[in-house]
Amino acid sequence: MADGIVCVPMKLDAFLLNPSTCNAWPRATLAPITQPNYTFLRLDANYIQPDVLPHIDLHGAANVDSNDRITDLGRGDLRNHRIGVYLHWILPRVYRTGTAATGYDSFGAPKDPSGELARRAAAGYPSAAPSSTSNVDQQSIVFRNTPNRWLVIRRLQMLTVKPPVAQKRLKPFHAFLVESDRLQNIQTLDNSVDLQVDVTPFINGYDANLNNPDGLAGQAEIFIGNTFQDALNVPSLGGVPWKEQDVTRVPVSVLNSSNHLFPDYVPHNGSVFSMLDDFTYLPDDKPGTKPTKLQSATASYQVIGWHSDKNIADDPFFIDPNLTNPPTRNSRLGTNKMVLSTKVSSPQNVTDWLSQTTSARTLCHGSMYSVEYSLTDPPKIIAADALGNLLSKAAPVAVGTTPLDSVLSFVGAHIKLGDTDDNENILFKDLKALQTLLLKQEETTDNQYEANDILSAHNYAPAKNSGFSWHLSGQNPEGKPTQPTPAQLSLLTELNVLQEALDLATRDLRLERWNLWSLWWKYYSQRPTESAANPPAHPENEAQSKLVVDLGNKVTDLQQQVNNKAAALKVCEKGARNRFYSLRDPTLLVSGISSPWPTDFTDNLLVRLGSQIVAPLSVPVGAPNDWSQFGTFVDQVHSAAILPNTALQDAAKRLMIEFFELHPLDPLETFTSSVKGSDVGVVTPLYHDQGGDIKLGPRDTWGSIQPWFPLFLEWEVHYYHIPFEKWNFEQVDAPDSGATRTRYGIQPEVDLDDPKEPHPIKENVRTLSGRVLILPQPSFSLKNTIDQLVLSTSKGVLLSALKINAGDDPATVQAELDAISDTISELPFLSAPMDGFTSHLLTQAQGAHIKPGKRMPGQALAVLPSAIGDDRVFDKNVVSQMGNETGNTPYANQVTFGDMPYSPFKPVTHGQFCFTKLNIIDKFGQAVSAINPANLTPKPLYPVISEYYHPQQLPLATGAIVPNPNVVVKGDPDGRCRFVQIPPNINQDARVNAVFLTRDEPTAAQPLPPWRPALEWESPIWGWMVVNYVEEGVQFFLPDGTFYREVRLGGVKGTTEPPKWKPFGQPANGQVTPLGTSQLDSLLKKFDKDPNYLRDFIAVINLGLDAVPAAPTDYANYLPAIIGKPLALVNTGWSLELATDPLTNQSFQSLDRPVEKAVLDYKFPLRLGDPDRVFDGLIGFYEGTKNTYNPKTQISQGPVLGAELSLDYLYTHFIPTKVSGTSIKAIDEDNSTHFISLQPYKLNNHIVLTDTPEDLHAQHNSQYQVVGAIIDPYTSLHGYTGVQPITSLKLPAWSVQLALKRMTAFFTLGPLLITTPNPQTRYDPTLTISQTALPVRVPSIKAGTNATAVPGTGIPIPAMQTADWQWLQPYFVDDGTGTGKKTTQWNGLGVEPLENSAKLQDGPYTAVEGYLQLKQPLDGEGMAPVNA
Fold it and tell me: DSSP 3-state assignment of 697?
């Protein structure tokens, strides 16, 4: 039945190739065919190369006579066979989407492979190991095999066939048959086969001969694909229609050719996913008559593809009948990212079909109408020519950090030049408004600044695996993480220490596997031929192999220990640690190119059932012109039984009839389709032109337009390395935002092109190059991001940001929002990362190359015996230890550097580059160039450069109108800039570790406990401070909010420091330890000795409080008018950690040239805080003392108690106008001396093997640069390095809330003259003030005590809300020890309002002095301290 068939649409494209396609720059030309050279897979130093696909050479491509794609350069003859129409069908997304699993559970233990096999089987992916799970690699990506049979139907418009005599020699309809999976060897191909067009080079990983030493050498002779020129009359079969034959075949997927261009680049997939129609015919039937070519004709094509019966399990709708719980067809539709049209005549039939659990068959199909072939003339419209002309004149190229950054930079620059239209201007403003909303959906300026900073993190690529940490599950009602029992704490600590060691060893293992692979590559890329007989000794190979084995064993052992500890702890969960990052390669944007991929390519694919095909059961009687013969042709194809079963044959027949029904009318044709445009429950194919929908563009009508489908981009640059000493880490103004950014720039006094420089920078130059695919994702992902933002953002915020009037008609508002998304889809740009840029600076190459292992889809890596070599320097065990780490290849001796005096290896990038080549190649081989490839000295390309990459400017020269950029090679006119500046960045994964630090209590065994990161349930605060505006003083509190001491300006010494704890009682013994107060005591001593220090300190705090955000609503609104907002005192630790050991030079050609600076020798400044950003909470900081670690004793020690911080200088952004002393230092002085210095570190992998996890943990902690910070407790502290994303620290909310529940505001008052009863006669020992208990709510306190005093008995206070306050009265009383000594105690007394009018009151008069205390704590919950 036809409804057992799923019709899957494909986009079909047709390209005309003839001599007119070769044109001189700047027009598009025809790229010579550069196929994968599989001879580079041989283990021979004369052949082995890092990439089997070299860059395309366009130097001679402009002329027909020198372009070897169309001319045989050896004989000078035109390659007539290659002239014709090239058809290419774009594989549906179901064949381009792979699947893989992590292979590990949440505890890090390997999963049972049988579960992953079952999941893949349910999803319809091919089984990796049907009889065993021992060889399954769950992390290996598996792709579906593609259809392997393609029926191509051609219809000629006979009236257009020239010469006219050929009309009698040709039939209007013809069928070709393509076998994609047919494997052929060069010895079996006859001389008529064009190896570059008619077949496809292929790596046969399925060939058993690869297990032989000579297997790799024969790869250059293996091809796949075969086109039968007449599917209804195959000469090799005796003139009968094509049928399946028993020949050698291989599975074909988008990746198993080891060529990433394979599925879409026509010169690499001939007779597999493309076909040449050469329009040849026999002029007569005389013996020996040679075929000749038509001069011109108009043709239409249809392609139908399916999986052969032997490969039925590859069909996306094959459902294994042996599955215990087979999926429904509806489920399989979802897995395949497909949807079924709801426009059907029998909905119940569709419902029944969807619910079935039996297999269906896939029939792919696509059409292209009215293709105009000519032997000599070009198409009327050549889209690529327009781009070529644009590139040569305007150079519409931009370089940014991300696709969005590139787009905004490009459009913004052109708006300034006034060469954009209104729609582009509006779109640019909309994108700028939406850019920050992508991350911060609020409207305030401060939030927009914050979003800009967060967006800068997108400049960096996160590492795949940055490690894990373990936590106890759950939290208490106040949000505090679960505090473990002593036994749990011990287990959790051990678990995290083990996990940290495991993560470190795992990362080291990956690097050392690559280093082992590097030795393999270096050996075979330079092995002398005589070494096979007498293999030399290579002790470094054995040592590296042993290191890999030892690390692998270490990882296995640590993983087992982690699993055991996690199982013992039970109530724990695993989370990701802070990520490692590295700077992304620059993103290149080329404007003027719309994405060639169908705009709906990434949507769920609209498929049809057989009953939904737009076709009657037969070709209608009276079909016009030569269509009248189509019915007979369709019957011939159907009766030939080319497709494997009746259902497929019937569906294919209806698709062919649909091909007729939907054809555009020929000239003078008046035929009316019987179904076209009718509503009979049928659905037109997805890629059929839908009557003028310009958003979709031409889908299946050629329209006299030569297609332009840019597929990949090849670039080349000259990179100049600028010494690190010539850079400044500074704040600069960010264009168009009004904000500042902290970034690297060239020092103002440095001229990079100074001829007096003894070692000119221009001598330290590298040539870098790369190739990037142009995929559908970049532009689509931007559109999807904007669409998601529109859906998730509140309408009010969105309309405000976009300046849309919310009062407009709802339909109008929605139309404006939709227009943004639609306009993005129509943006004429393509963007791609410059992949390989960083790899080259690390002396590593990217590309497809020989590897010593082979991987069948879904299976584990197997050693390739023929890749071991006959000298056995690397045996099977050693090769297997390399695992999957065989991606990039080392330079070895394959890249030369001439007489360059510098090392090509750059562990840290800091320099500038300019383009020397930029070629865009489309899938048919059309090429356009931004720089004329025929010129030996290319003219400069001036790209638009984003703010992040833009060089600084030199001072304006005398007589100049615009300043020139500070670049390594001057001479560009009118301030133009060809150079892109890459600020300093580490060329391997690294991370800034930022933590709150704490210390354990001293013990006899450890009198100087080391710093360690605070645990999640530990408060990282070592003190609180509150400014007392009334008395020009500062009150200090312990971490839990207990009052400790106050220091005030005034007195004989200039400062006054009342006794500790007063007016409250001292906490009981054991509640406060020396560790808990040592840092506060040290700071208070500084204030006590230097009143200027205290005065400046208070001024800094006041300025800082003006800059940080207002307190949240749970902090009493009126408190800042009386006292300052509480500020937290914390110890923080900062370090810069490399993910692996420092990478090393991989070039043999430069070992005599030392690296200018090793990565571990760099010292990167860390800038803490930013006064321009209100979302930063730093007020100031003190430098601290690090741990010391003795590697011999493996003992780590912290600083002496009280000496943790160097308190001589407070570094801050908030410098008062008048400074009284010398203890306040500005962070941002010109010389930048007050930045924290971070030096990269990495614990050597040999230490990982020998030291215990506890020792490794101690060594990590010893790397923290200690900083004591004064911060706003509600706001994050930010650290800026310029080499990593902005790092932030924020106090846990629960630690702030718990402290504020205890803290209250109070200040001295008096002497006051009162007439109420003398307080000194009212001392009550039961009402002393204590801090041993949390405050209680006011309603629970008896009237007349802490509540409002009974009239006439309280302390009269003018103009205050007396219900909020109480009076703390001091009493000098016996201390209760029996010695007769006196002590000061305090009672809390009520207060009452004092009338403001002047009047005499009756005596007696009493002078009192004490504290006025706010009864509610600082969290604003209306609570007062307990009277003990």
Answer: coil
1056 touches 1050 (CB < 8 A) = yes
d(CA 1021, CA 1036): 12
Q: What is the pLDDT of residues 860-899, one digit of tens each?
A: 677 777 667 666 678 888 888 898 888 899 999 888 888 8
How far from the centroid of its chain's Cα atoms is residue 1213's Cα?
Answer: 33
pLDDT at 1361: 55
Contacts of 1311 (CB under 8 A, 6+ apart): 1407, 1408, 1409
The three-state secondary structure class of 637 is: helix
Cβ–Cβ under 8 Å, residues 829 and 100: no
Tokens for 1201, please give them.
């108690």
**Residue pLDDT, tens place only, 414-435:** 665 555 555 556 666 666 666 5
Structure tokens at 90: 């774009």
Which residue from 395, 394, 430, 389 is spatially nearest to 412, judged by alpha carbons?
A: 430
Phi-psi region of 1054 (alpha: psi -120 to 50; beta: other; left: phi over 0): left
Dist CA 442 CA 444 (whole Å) = 6
CB 1045 within 8 A of CB 1058: yes
3-state secondary structure of 1217: coil
My answer on whether omega of the bond before 1063 falls inside 30° of 0, hence cis, is: yes
Q: What's CA 1386's distance to the chain center, in Å?
A: 62
Q: What angle do CA 1220, 1223, 1227 make, to 5 degrees?
A: 110
Do residues 1168 and 1279 make contact, with C-beta atoms less than 8 angstroms apart?
yes
CA dihedral of 686, 692, 694, 697, whole degrees rounded to 10 = 50
Phi, psi of 176 (to 5 degrees): -105, 155
The answer to whether 229 and 172 are in contact (CB under 8 A) is no
The residue count of the chain comes to 1428
Helix/strand/coil for 1403: coil
d(CA 141, CA 34): 28
What six digits make up the tokens of 1239?
């030096």
Measured at the CA of 276, the angle between CA 273 and CA 280, to 5 degrees, comes to: 155
pLDDT in tens, 185-230: 988 898 889 999 999 998 876 554 444 444 566 677 889 999 999 9
By DSSP bridging, strand 338-340 and strand 605-609 are: parallel
> Is omega for the bond preceding 1404 within 30 degrees of 0, making it cis?
yes
Q: Which two tokens stand for residue 988?
A: 């391997």
The span from the first CA to the last CA of the chain, in angstroms, equals 91
The DSSP 8-state label assigned to residue 1069 in this structure reads T
Indicate the Cα dihedral angle 531, 537, 541, 545, nearest 10°: 120
Quick one: tokens of 85? Answer: 């129409």
Residue given tokens 């992304």 in the structure block: 584
- 207-221, 647-661, 1214-1228, range with the lowest pLDDT: 207-221
Q: Is the CB of residue 385 less than 8 Å from the CB of residue 932? A: no
CA 1166/CA 509 separation, integer angstroms: 30
Return d(Cα 926, Cα 20) in angstroms, integer.
Answer: 12
**pLDDT digit string (tens) for 981-1015?**
999 999 999 999 999 999 999 999 899 999 999 99
Which residue shows structure tokens 């042996």?
A: 322
- Per-residue H/E/C for 643-663: CCCHHHHHHHHHHHHHHHHCC
How far CA 1183 is from CA of 194, 1023, 1225, 1238, 1417, in Å, comes to 73, 17, 12, 13, 32
| pTM attached to this predicted model | 0.88
